[in-house]
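Comment on both lines for my students:
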Amino acid sequence: MHTHLEGIHIPKNVKTIGEKAFAKCEAMIDITIPEGVTTLGRYAFQSCKSLSSIELPDSITQIPAYAFAWCASITDVVL
């Protein structure tokens, strides 16, 4: 569990963010997923309670069930 992680930089060569990869990162504030990522796993960002901003690239064609479940602070989503 990465409860103190406030942000991450995902390299451009990453294609998949796995199931529960950043689940329960309660301090994470925002996330920008780079172009080239095609797959998000279920529950990938579940319970990131401080997450307020998400930027998703065109390369993601589907957002799976519960990818952002229990992220009650999200106010800004850029697709």
